[in-house]
Amino acid sequence: MTSDGRTPERASLGTWPTPLEPAPRLARALGLGPDDLWIKRDDLTGLGGGGNKIRKLEWLCGAALADGATTLVTTGAPQSNHARLTAAAAARLSLRAVLVLAGTPGSSASSAPGNLALDGLFGARVVWAGSAGGDALVATAAQEAERLRGQGEVPALIPFGGSSVTGARGYAECGRELLTQAPDLTTVVVALGSGGTMAGLVGALGAGRVLGVHCGAVSDPAGSVSKLVSGLSDAHQAAPEALRLRLDQVGDGYGALTEPVMSALTLTARTEGIVLDPVYTGRAMAGLAAAAEDGDIRPGQRTVFLHTGGLPGLFGHQATLTRAQAALTWED
Ligand SMILES: *Cc1c(COP(=O)(O)O)cnc(C)c1O
Fold it and tell me: Do 272 and 282 belong together in one domain?
């Protein structure tokens, strides 16, 4: 929605439709039939290195442009893929970008490369909000917006992770796109961060066909997703308890590398030549492997893994890089 309640046009940012590719070697390694597992390549959405946030940003930027915005303001973790893609979208649309990130200047997280290096290339301005958590991020973003207004700019506040009802529309579209590519889809497996991606898919496909793997980014994953779904029009609805969620892959918390995630990264790379990231897609694949093991996902059913991107984050995650390089000496 725009600020005066109109339905905005979508800004054109990505490359559609994204491919749906078979993953027969990975399928076999997970105990599934060779034709059972497919990967929806939303890491190949194009702009800014790609990833799931592009589908949301098409709608969010459409609303921002309709409101006459001159600057996009958003929030996130230092290695936020969403912040990086907001910066890329701003560049493409001739807008400025201000990224309000958690952390303090000079800390190891605020000087890691990965997404932050790309934020710099895209010309974004980064404001460090300290490490006090989500409320401090929101408050700092509101202050920045006020300051920009004082300078004659028109700021548009893009929500955390791009997850508002407007942003989730992009994933309702993805769900419909996926149905034309795989009408016999039983389960799509997706990383659950801020929740908009899963919410859009549930809106289009119904709760029974979407398995969300919680990544530890929000405190109430089921409530976050359910609330976003209820705002979508022409959508399947889903109470929090109707959602299919796996909460068993969080480990030591958001961003912390776990052994199942390291195994999922290694297996996916060595069977399909596809790179996952340690924060989101690695957790989603570890959740898929666990679901194949406990029978929630079964041979003979069509399963789709939604690859939501995140490759730049791998280059900002030292623990994973160290493990990956150590594997150079690995022998069979
Ligand atoms: C943001 C993100 C997700 C999670 O999407 P949400 O809509 O925030 O739940 C998954 N994978 C990657 C790579 C992301 O950047």
Answer: yes
329 CA to centre of ligand 1 in angstroms: 32
What digits encode the pLDDT tens for the residues 264-320? 999 999 999 999 999 999 999 999 999 999 999 999 999 999 999 999 999 999 999
Average pLDDT, the chain: 96
**How many whole angstroms separate alpha carbon 278 and alpha carbon 310?**
8
CB 243 within 8 Å of CB 205: no
Residues 233 and 137 in one domain: no
* Whether residue 268 sits in one domain with residue 177: yes
List C-alpha distances in Å: 199 to 34, 64, 125, 320.
29, 21, 30, 29
**Ligand 1 pocket check: which of 280, 285, 288, 306 to mutate, most ligand atoms within 8 Å of Cβ?**
280
Q: How far is the CA of 103 from the centre of ligand 1 (A)?
A: 20
Is pTM beyond 0.90? Reply is: yes
The string of pLDDT tens digits covering residues 71-127 is: 999 999 999 999 999 999 999 999 999 999 999 988 888 888 999 999 999 999 999
Q: Residues 58, 122: one domain?
A: yes
